Amino acid sequence: MAEQHLRRPAVEAATGLSRSSLYAMMDTGDFPRPVRIGKRAVAWPESAVTAWLASRPVANREGK
């Protein structure tokens, strides 16, 4: 089965990051780079976004 690719609006919705934050984090190596899916189109592999989300620290809901 082929891997799904997420376009920028879907990545923004999944991560809660803005466009400028995504690109700034890519420049510092803190977010995966997209892959080219067409002559003028890029998208992120869903597995890369999911792995990035899983690597983020979880907020403590109890404030401890």
UniProtKB/TrEMBL annotation:
Species of provenance: Harenicola maris
Protein name: AlpA family transcriptional regulator
InterPro entries reported in the protein's UniProt record: AlpA (IPR010260), DNA-bd_dom_put_sf (IPR009061), Prophage_regulatory_activator (IPR052931)
